[in-house]
């Protein structure tokens, strides 16, 4: 059964946004002559890899598979995934933004690359927020060591 509550949760909403924004990044870069610039190869790798991984995680949570595979520490997996995605999207955003050349001889390439940089920045922010929320979920939503040591 599909988990309808997941779609309305912050995690589900952010994963959906990451998938849409990541798709925009690699589609806009792929529609240019990116093969002429080595920097865009890195942007394509990061955006496509994390788009596929995010879609797979989204489907995993939508199908409630973490309940069946309870041995896997899912909050930690999400924390590591989102932290790595944020770090690599920072590099992809900086690379994509630095490689945009306003004096390009193909104006449509400039527009698409500039839009890809913008959406890479939004995707980076979405993964950053997910990292923060994943950290809070992994930590235990506000619990600390003192409250976990208290016994009745």
TrEMBL record:
<comment type="similarity">
    <text>Belongs to the MAL family.</text>
</comment>
<keyword id="KW-0812">Transmembrane</keyword>
<dbReference type="Pfam" id="PF01284">
    <property type="entry name" value="MARVEL"/>
</dbReference>
<feature type="transmembrane region" description="Helical">
    <location>
        <begin position="7"/>
        <end position="29"/>
    </location>
</feature>
<dbReference type="GO" id="GO:0019911">
    <property type="term" value="F:structural constituent of myelin sheath"/>
</dbReference>
<feature type="transmembrane region" description="Helical">
    <location>
        <begin position="70"/>
        <end position="94"/>
    </location>
</feature>
<dbReference type="GO" id="GO:0016324">
    <property type="term" value="C:apical plasma membrane"/>
</dbReference>
<protein>
    <recommendedName>
        <fullName>Plasmolipin</fullName>
    </recommendedName>
</protein>
<dbReference type="InterPro" id="IPR013295">
    <property type="entry name" value="MAL"/>
</dbReference>
<keyword id="KW-1133">Transmembrane helix</keyword>
<feature type="transmembrane region" description="Helical">
    <location>
        <begin position="41"/>
        <end position="63"/>
    </location>
</feature>
<feature type="domain" description="MARVEL">
    <location>
        <begin position="6"/>
        <end position="139"/>
    </location>
</feature>
<feature type="transmembrane region" description="Helical">
    <location>
        <begin position="114"/>
        <end position="135"/>
    </location>
</feature>
<dbReference type="InterPro" id="IPR008253">
    <property type="entry name" value="Marvel"/>
</dbReference>
<keyword id="KW-0472">Membrane</keyword>
<dbReference type="GO" id="GO:0043209">
    <property type="term" value="C:myelin sheath"/>
</dbReference>
<comment type="subunit">
    <text>Forms oligomers.</text>
</comment>
<dbReference type="InterPro" id="IPR050578">
    <property type="entry name" value="MARVEL-CKLF_proteins"/>
</dbReference>
<dbReference type="GO" id="GO:0042552">
    <property type="term" value="P:myelination"/>
</dbReference>
<keyword id="KW-1003">Cell membrane</keyword>
């Amino acid at each position: 059964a599909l988990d309808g509550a997941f779609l309305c949760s912050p995690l589900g909403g952010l994963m959906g946004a990451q998938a849409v924004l990541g798709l925009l990044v690699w589609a806009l870069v792929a529609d240019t002559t990116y093969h002429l610039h080595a920097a865009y190869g890195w942007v394509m790798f990061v955006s496509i890899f994390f788009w596929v991984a995010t879609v797979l995680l989204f489907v995993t949570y939508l199908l409630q598979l973490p309940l069946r595979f309870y041995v896997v520490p899912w909050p930690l997996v999400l924390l590591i995934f989102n932290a790595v995605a944020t770090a690599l999207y920072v590099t992809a955003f900086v690379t994509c933004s630095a490689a945009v050349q306003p004096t390009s001889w193909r104006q449509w390439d400039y527009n698409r690359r500039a839009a890809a940089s913008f959406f890479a920045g939004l995707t980076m922010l979405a993964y950053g927020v997910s990292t923060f929320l994943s950290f809070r979920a992994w930590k235990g939503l506000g619990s600390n060591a003192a409250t976990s040591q208290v016994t009745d």
